[in-house]
Amino acid sequence: MTPELSWLPSWLSFGLMALPVAFALGWLASRLDWRQLRLEDRRNPRAYFRGLNFLLNEQQDQAIDAFIEAVQNDPDTSELHFALGNLFRRRGDYERAVRVHQHLLSRGDLSETEHQRAQHALALDYLKAGLLDHAENALLKLEGTPFQTQARLARLANHERARDWAQAAAIARSLDNARDLGAGGTSAGTQLAGSFAPRLAHYLCEQAAERLASRNVEGAQELLLRAIDTAPQAPRPRIDLARLQMQRGQASDNETVRREAASQACETLSAALDASPAAAPLIAAPLVKAAQACGQEASVQARLRALYEQAPSLDLLEALIALHAPVPDAAPGDASKPENLRGWYLRHLRHEPSLAAASKWLAGEKLEHEEERPLVQRALDRAAQPLLRYRCAACGFEAKQHFWQCPGCQSWDSYPARRVEEL
């Protein structure tokens, strides 16, 4: 017998009838939500991989558009923000890169690691944009993080660029201490290798040059002596000190004082040869001047000849000729004559195929067609000029003079003491 429902209230009857409808609507809504989620999941990876494909094809503008689409579809994904910010920086759009990384830093859901990463990325944005004050503040916030060493190296480069040698020295010492203690030796992929002592010596030499420019000779000498103590093997402090000693002697009218100053310079440069024989081509010319000023030509000549026999170079060759060094195996009575002194060039050519040496030897020889000498000599000199330059081992920048810091890549001690022809 079917029970009657007429006794139930009307609202309850309606509710029982609506249950199946509500269930059906809920099921339909869930199906639509899952479909929407699957659609978004398909769309996000598609935009992401499309951006990667553009990157591989070096199409940065299209890659940025694809990553913007991916970020809009999934604004909570930090990796997409990092990728987008780095792309803006690489393209030179530093303002937008800063905005992206500042947005990441303002988020409260970032982990500590991602927050530090965003802080480092923001510092790089400021560095690339040339906003050094903002970069300094951003880099200081990375102290005590895995990015500490990278941040200190970036700050070091900033202070070098600004020629703030005292601040640069403080940071270099902190890097040296961290390396010695084993802390910060590896941070965010940066491995410190070697000591910063040679660079600290360069900073002291730069400060000495500034004091010398302001006529503080005593202060400059004190800094150069500190530089020698800091990096005993570095040639620059002794070369700069010898130059200062020669200048002090030349400023005096007393011949005895001048000879004593030249003798001091000679002693300083001889110590430089002992500490750094590889720098002999740079030391030879000032050593010859000092030796000629104090009458020590014979001892210096013997020293330079021994170095030349071990490692021939154009600068040592010129120094020996300037000292009127007799050519080995030359006739005893004619050893100091110009034609025999030019025999050094022939002797050099037997060991080194040098166009510069050949040009200088030919300048004193008689040609069959002597009237054509100027044309031949000019052609040889022009061809030899590029070979007499110095070349940076880090970036290949060439210069007529030797630099302790490359003007191109800012690397220290990247210029060999030898010229391009001898490399």
Automatic annotation (TrEMBL):
Residues of the signal peptide: none
Superkingdom field: Bacteria
InterPro entries xrefs: Rubredoxin_2, TPR-like_helical_dom_sf
Protein name in the entry: Tetratricopeptide repeat protein
Keyword terms of this UniProt record: Membrane, Metal-binding, Transmembrane, Transmembrane helix
Keyword Membrane set for record: yes
Spans through the membrane: 6-29
GO MF: metal ion binding
Sequence ranges assigned to domain LapB rubredoxin metal binding in this UniProt record: 390-414
Organism, as annotated: Hylemonella gracilis ATCC 19624
